[in-house]
């Protein structure tokens, strides 16, 4: 009688005993029809650790096995898969062994292990047909080696595809699609908090240059304080190693916290948890949250899209990635100044945050949605916010090119832009700035003249004059991605330049540095042409930046009587000869023919 294929496996639910050892229990069986895929999911380890086993039976009775081993501080449960390949009319079994699981195993490793251990697998021996038995063994070995070889080719192909930055963004990508899980000897235990940081760990005054992850930390809603739990009676542990002050044992010192929550923060915008010598509260005392949460602070100033997109919100994404804590289901928690629902700040939050995280909320509103007095976070990320537009802070942007590009691409994709659909013909967009929060406009003064000049000089190229206030953010993303040459004023309106397609050009206005516009300590000197957003834009190498320089009083006009600051209160008068030089450079460097 012919047997239908079936799968026998152990499913172990591992329960913590005195925080030191585990026991296994519970065996289940799965059964499927002949020639149907078999799948097994969700091996669960209590306390938020998981074992996941997936097994599929193809039409040719080939098994593909993938195991992920996640670790606890104290112990790791051993799992290996040994597989048997038999004829289609025979059953096959999957069992667990007692071999130690030293590290997370890839599919390739498991296939190799299976091949090397196949000699020890008990296969039925047909004494009447020894040649047939040998053939069966050979076929099994060949099949396993074939699977390994195919997987090897896939890994090589994946390696070369990942080198293309434009290909990297099916959301971010790269190594951070999911957090990399590995054995962690410094992870949190079950009775106290833990932490780790990147940044300066010597000088207490360097709180604004630190980015940290806190594990098993709780927010006390009554005291309005984050509590870091240290085991009662445990040894005193230094946090910082100050060259002058020696060991520092607290997260808060000299009237400031441990990390910075806002890009241009003072001591009042710094933050650090409060250490308490208590056991970590039980699940009966507190509500525990598993996904990553990121603590940040909104910079409460006049509306400027650049500061919101690239400082307020981007810093949360950067912090997760830099600490290997990226979570697509992360929750961003604004600490103190959450924008009012419906205002422009809040609308921009809704345009950006869903591109890489689950939601954004105020700390107060979010924690009060839970009934318990304590809300505990398995992972809380904080810090790392830095100014992106100041020349003085440019060194902090250096090295973040890939982070910036992935963040930008995730936003484009969230708004439905196909990043593979690059423009096939030239399109020039001339930005008409009609609105500003300040009295001055800081626009292109002779916009109509510029428009007529481009139409006359480049009649074969499509020209569109765009007022971005007439477009939704989603529409702006799509219009930008159809543009090959963008001509724009500087300032907040230019901070959408990074959303241009790869290989395109932007001509962005400088400003003239007069005495009133000069800021002490800035690199730009009086009488020079200043690239207002150059410290930011220069870190998007997929776009060529052509700065229209402003050299004298003939190149600008003040926006209102009595104005004197050429940085804030002047609009630019474009010279057509100099503009043509830059447009010609863009056309010459482009892979698109100007006559298309």
TrEMBL record:
Residues 401-506 form the Glycosyltransferase 61 catalytic domain. GO terms for molecular function: glycosyltransferase activity. Pfam families: Glyco_transf_61 (PF04577). It comes from the Eukaryota. This is Glycosyltransferase 61 catalytic domain-containing protein.
């Amino acid at each position: 009688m012919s047997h239908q294929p079936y799968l026998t496996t152990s499913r172990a639910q591992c329960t913590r005993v005195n925080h030191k050892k585990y026991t296994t229990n519970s065996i289940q069986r799965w059964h499927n029809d002949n020639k149907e895929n078999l799948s097994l999911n969700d091996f669960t380890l209590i306390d938020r650790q998981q074992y996941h086993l997936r097994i599929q039976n193809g039409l040719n009775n080939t098994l593909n096995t993938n195991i992920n081993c996640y670790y606890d501080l104290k112990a790791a449960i051993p799992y290996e898969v040994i597989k048997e390949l038999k004829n289609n009319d025979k059953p096959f079994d999957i069992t667990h062994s007692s071999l130690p699981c030293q590290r997370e195993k890839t599919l390739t490793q498991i296939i190799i292990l299976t091949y090397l251990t196949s000699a020890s697998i008990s296969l039925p021996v047909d004494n009447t047909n020894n040649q047939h038995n040998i053939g069966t063994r050979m076929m099994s070995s060949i099949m396993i080696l074939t699977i390994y070889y195919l997987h090897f080719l896939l890994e090589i192909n994946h390696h070369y595809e990942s080198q293309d930055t434009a290909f990297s963004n099916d959301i971010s990508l790269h190594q951070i699609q999911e957090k990399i899980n590995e054995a962690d000897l410094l992870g949190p235990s079950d009775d106290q908090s833990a932490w780790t940081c990147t940044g300066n760990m010597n000088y207490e005054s360097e709180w604004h240059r630190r980015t940290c992850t806190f594990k098993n930390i709780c927010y006390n809603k009554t005291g309005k304080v984050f509590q870091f739990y240290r085991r009662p009676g445990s040894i005193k542990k230094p946090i910082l190693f100050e060259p002058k002050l020696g060991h520092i044992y607290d997260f808060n010192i000299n009237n400031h916290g441990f990390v910075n929550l806002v890009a241009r923060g003072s001591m009042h915008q710094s933050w650090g948890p409060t250490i308490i010598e208590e056991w970590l509260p039980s699940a009966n005392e507190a509500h525990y949250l598993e996904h990553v949460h990121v603590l940040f602070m909104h910079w409460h100033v006049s509306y400027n899209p650049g500061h919101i997109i690239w400082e307020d919100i981007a810093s949360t994404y950067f912090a997760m990635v830099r600490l290997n804590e990226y979570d697509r289901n992360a929750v961003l928690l604004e600490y103190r100044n959450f924008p009012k629902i419906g205002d422009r700040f809040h609308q921009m939050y809704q345009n950006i945050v869903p591109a890489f995280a689950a939601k954004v909320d105020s700390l107060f509103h979010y924690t009060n949605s839970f009934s318990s007095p304590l809300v505990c976070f398995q992972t809380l990320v904080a810090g790392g916010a830095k100014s992106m537009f100041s020349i003085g802070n440019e060194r902090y942007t250096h090295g973040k090119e890939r982070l910036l590009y992935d963040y930008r691409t995730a936003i484009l994709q969230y708004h439905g832009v196909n990043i593979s659909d690059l423009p096939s013909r030239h399109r020039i967009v001339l930005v008409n700035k009609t609105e500003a929060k300040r009295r001055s406009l800081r626009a292109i003064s002779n916009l109509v003249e510029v428009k007529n000049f481009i139409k006359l000089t480049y009649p074969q190229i499509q020209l569109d004059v765009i007022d971005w206030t007439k477009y939704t953010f989603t529409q702006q993303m799509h219009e930008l991605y159809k543009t090959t040459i963008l001509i724009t004023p500087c300032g907040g309106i230019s901070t959408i330049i990074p959303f241009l397609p790869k290989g395109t050009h932007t001509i962005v206005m400088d400003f003239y540095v007069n005495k009133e516009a000069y800021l002490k300590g800035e690199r730009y000197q009086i009488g020079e042409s200043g690239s207002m957003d150059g410290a930011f834009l220069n870190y998007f190498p997929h776009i060529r930046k052509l700065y229209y320089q402003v050299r004298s009083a003939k190149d600008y006009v003040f926006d209102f009587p009595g104005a004197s600051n050429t940085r804030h209160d002047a609009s630019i008068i474009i010279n057509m000869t100099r503009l043509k030089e830059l447009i010609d450079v863009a056309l010459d460097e482009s892979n698109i023919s100007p006559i298309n």
